[in-house]
Specification:
The complex is a heterodimer. Chain A is built from 14 helices and two strands. By secondary structure, chain A is mainly alpha-helical. Chain A has one domain: Orthogonal Bundle (MetI-like fold), CATH 1.10.3720. In chain A, strand 1 and strand 2 form a beta hairpin. In chain A, helix 9 crosses helix 11 and helix 10 runs antiparallel to helix 11. The relative contact order of chain A is 0.12. By secondary structure, chain B is mainly alpha-helical. Chain B has one domain: MetI-like (MetI-like fold, Orthogonal Bundle). Classes of the chains: A mainly alpha, B mainly alpha.
């Protein structure tokens, strides 16, 4: 029986392909793409403000609401934060990624790799919680500033509009620090992977032809490692855009997209507006992914 | 040469700084589990105690949340291992139209913000009037777990010579025997590593879960409630420490199992 079936299948590679590919693709198409389609449809409905029920008629009113001042502010605030986090993480990540890929010996390399993987796979919530401990008013950062007598500096930072707040644990700068921390490994690993692929012979050729170390770096190594930076930025950008845990735990009353979605679908039951809000990040990420694919970033994922 | 040494020194210092930045918060978690402080997060710790471990272990709500998280992660991982391996085998075996799209579709749930996956599933569940349950959580988790298994297994397939499979068939084994005795042992550790990472991903997931769980409380949902409204600070400190220690284990194992063929590089998450 098995023998017969085996031969039957061996002679029909296309059938085997279909059997292998069918279940995962059907699952993803039905569950995931189906849900996305339902989300898209919902964003064209609107919440009836009198009855509190969802009016299932095609309308663009919900999208129009996005362009109200307060909602537009949320979109801009979130995108700015995502961009700032992405750029900061790329700058912090590069030296370590370079050390792992190009400088460290074999043993040091696997040690460093593990040292990056460990925080990446540790609990995301617990890492956010750690920063709540660190940034709180009576926590370790305040203590450190006190110790070296830089309290006025901390107070000055916290007094800045749009950045500061009552304490580091309740301010946009706190949210920024935590985002940078949480997503940093997602930037390090793709850059490292891309740097590994930059052939040493190219760098040698460059220096043989008289380029200084810095010239070689900026003309050869850096451009060739860009797919890794872009791959990493997909993660940092996308994850920041959609997160509501960090701003809810450490932010002030000014909303980010994630919080807006969370509260609109939750307390007010306004699924259409929540859906319309998510279309912003979806659009940004789809464009981002298409550009990234063109630039070969998927090989560095 | 002198300036090169200087650059190297700066590079090493920057790398060391980044490593400290990555690891000090984890160390802080280990430290705070022992604080006597019940109402604030005071540093330096006012006193050291181990009493909170007993308090945390006696909490029934925590055990229930942990049990639910483990169950969800196990089932979601099992689904992801089957679907991920099938997709990897299909993509590896043949060059078909739309092959690129398979990777694209699988990576989408983790490339798009978690809130998109969450609210999308929520609107579908709501639209179809499906009651929230254990299964709505599992189905949500499986969508983003598939890709970790897929990446790991595909990377291993690419390192495994297809001639082994042909040799097995030439020697008279049928497809199933070949899979059982040749393919499976080859991809075994990659499958296991992918599975563990999928488990870790599901075990820790909170954003999608808040949209698909209804009234159910997984461990991350419990921790999240403590983040926004801290009621049990000392207990949370202990839970945080235990979670950090437990999640470290699969990472070491996954690293170990994949390091001999070094395809761990392609996890990407």
């Amino acid at each position: 029986m098995f023998k017969f079936l085996s031969t039957y299948l061996y002679l029909r590679p296309k059938l085997v392909l279909g059997l292998l590919l069918g279940p995962p693709m059907i699952y993803m198409a039905v569950v995931y793409l189906g849900s996305l389609a339902s989300l898209l449809v919902n964003s064209f409905y609107k919440l009836d403000s009198f009855t509190g029920l969802i009016d299932r008629q095609f309308t663009l009113e919900t999208y129009a609401q996005l362009f109200q001042r307060s909602n537009l502010d949320i979109l801009i605030r979130t995108t700015t934060m995502a961009a700032a986090v992405t750029i900061t993480d790329a700058l912090i990540a590069f030296p370590l990624a370079y050390t792992i890929a190009k400088v460290a010996g074999k043993r040091a390399k696997s040690f460093l790799y593990l040292a990056v993987m460990l925080p990446l796979w540790s609990s995301y919530l617990i890492r956010v919680y750690a920063w709540k401990l660190i940034l709180s008013k009576e926590g370790i950062i305040s203590w450190l500033f006190n110790l070296v007598g830089l309290n006025p500096l901390l107070d000055w930072i916290l007094s800045l509009p749009n950045i500061g707040g009552s304490s580091l644990a309740l301010s946009p700068i706190g949210v920024f620090i935590v985002f940078c921390y949480i997503w940093l490994p997602y930037m390090i690993l793709p850059i490292q992977a891309a740097l590994e692929r930059v052939s040493g012979t190219l760098e040698e050729a460059s220096s043989d032809l008289g380029a200084k170390t810095t010239q070689t770096f900026f003309n050869i190594t850096l451009p060739l490692s860009m797919p890794g930076v872009i791959a990493g930025s997909i993660f940092t950008f996308s994850l920041t855009l959609g997160d509501f845990i960090v701003p809810l735990s450490l932010g002030n009353s000014k909303y980010f997209i994630g919080q807006a979605v969370y509260s609109h679908q939750g307390t007010s039951g306004n699924v259409p507006l929540a859906a319309a809000f998510t279309m912003g990040p979806v659009l940004i990420m789809v464009i981002y992914l298409l550009i990234a694919r063109r630039m070969g970033a998927f090989d560095a994922l | 040469m002198h300036s090169n040494n200087k650059v190297l020194a700066i590079l090493k210092a920057a790398s060391a700084g980044t490593l400290l930045f990555l690891h000090i918060p984890l160390a802080i978690i280990l430290l705070y589990a022992f604080t006597t402080d019940e109402t604030t997060y005071t540093f330096p710790l006012p006193g050291i105690t181990t009493q909170w471990f007993a308090v945390a272990l006696a909490r029934q709500d925590l055990w229930a949340a942990l049990a639910l998280s483990v169950k969800v992660a196990l089932v979601a991982t099992a689904i992801a291992m089957v679907l991920g391996t099938m997709a990897a085998a299909a993509v590896y075996r043949s060059n078909f139209f739309g092959r690129e799209s398979v990777s694209f579709l699988l990576v989408l749930p983790i490339a798009l913000p978690g809130i998109v996956t969450g609210i999308a599933l929520r609107s579908a569940i709501g639209g179809l009037d499906i009651p929230f349950s254990f299964w709505t959580i599992v189905i949500g988790h499986a969508t983003f777990c598939v890709v970790t298994v897929y990446n790991n297994v595909l990377a291993r397939f690419r390192r495994t010579s297809n001639s082994l499979v042909e040799a097995s068939m030439d020697l008279g084994a049928n497809s199933f025997e070949t899979f059982r005795h040749v393919v499976l042992p080859n991809i075994g550790t990659a499958l296991l590593a992918g599975g563990m990472l999928a488990f870790a991903l599901s075990f820790d997931e909170v954003i999608v879960t808040t949209f698909t769980a209804g009234q159910q409380t997984t461990l991350p949902v419990w921790i999240f409630s403590q983040l926004t409204r801290p009621r049990d600070r000392p207990v949370t400190n202990v839970v945080a420490m235990i979670v950090i220690l437990i999640t470290a284990l699969p990472i070491f194992l996954a690293q170990k199992w994949t390091s001999d063929s070094s395809d761990a590089n392609e996890n990407g998450k």
